[in-house]
Amino acid sequence: MNTEDDLRDSLRIFAAAASRMESPAAAWANLRAEMPTAKRRRRVVRPRLVVAGGLALTLGGAFLAADVVSHDSSPLPGTAADASTFLADAAAQANANPDAPIPPGQFRQITIQQTYLYEFGTKKIFRATTHMQIDKWVTADPTRQYLARVQELVRVDFATPEARVAARTLAPHLFARPEPRLYRMTCKGAAIEPRTPPDVVNAPCTPGWQLPTALFLASLPRDPDALLAALRKDTPPAGRPVTPLELARAKATTPDQRALSRIGVVLNSGIAPADLRAALYQAAAKIPGIQLLDDVVALDGRHGRAIGLTYNGYRQDIIISPSNGQSIGSRLVVSKDGAALPNGESNVAGALRAGDVYNAVSFTTRLTTAAPPTK
């Protein structure tokens, strides 16, 4: 992202999807199916003030401002067998803990936290992590559209004090705190502002992987093998033309990468029912190269275990609570020093080091009687 417009465009793209983690990992080819299976050991991580360090994050209260970028300090991944055992347990937990139905007149409020690593300056030598928040109010009627409130640039964490100073001149938009915006979400991968004409707002809903709906999720098979086949299948976005970037991603993405990315999309939507979560975990266990991370801290500070898939210098993680089988977030972690992102999707240019968190998502859900805001 080179300009303020680029940053805002990327935020709006995420706002359109609202629930998904549209990670750059989806574009990367050459999946490394074989991963180290040695006995796990604790990775020793020391904060790096120049490039990255520890980052404390809080949700729902005052955010902690710090001149650092998030860094992974999880244990090294375990074996595929470890992951399969955990996913089987998580599936059983999910089936045993179904979500409470939404009572009449109430909403399921889904709060999503999202971060991206952002570079700026003529040689992209300065870095910051941008934070945004999305709240969605979903009703019991799966055919209804819903309102989403998007807060862009809730907070920005700079990698160094020098980056903060440089941003005053080179990227002043990073200090802006736009007012929250309300959107009426459709199923076509687009966020429609409330002032949009009614015939557009009320257009027929076309479900798909890009923005899954309750009806779309209900249509997915619960058999793990059939579900994995659907997850791996290369299908264009429903209800709209394919963009050149999406076409490039599709060509560069292996079926297993596509499957894990879509699993993350569905889980991060916050509306996947328990039986589907269980089937997704069982399908994920069949993906070659999946490994387990024992103790992972999600963006909002909650602890869980993660299944990860490493390819092309990055690891895509899906974080799951072992107590109830609920997914609590996902992230994209650099696994190789100097990793660079292809396809022009990011200007991160070789400054990344193993353990840097490029992208992270966490979400919570709760039932509420409070109606969505009107402005």
Describe the structure.
This protein has 375 residues and is of the alpha+beta class. The chain has one domain (4-368). The protein is 25% helix and 24% strand. It is built from nine helices and ten strands. It has a ten-stranded antiparallel β-sheet with strand order 5-4-3-2-1-10-9-8-7-6. A hairpin with a 5-residue loop joins strand 4 (181-185) and strand 5 (191-192). Helix 6 crosses helix 8 (255-268). It is globular, with a radius of gyration of 20 Å. The protein starts with a helix and ends in a 7-residue tail after the last strand. Residues 1-68 have low confidence and may be disordered.
Number of helices: 9
Oligomer: single chain
Share of β-strand residues: 15-25%
Number of domains: 1
Estimated helix fraction: 25-40%
Given helix and strand content, the structural type is: alpha+beta
The largest sheet, given as strand count, sense and whether it forms a barrel, is: 10 strands, antiparallel
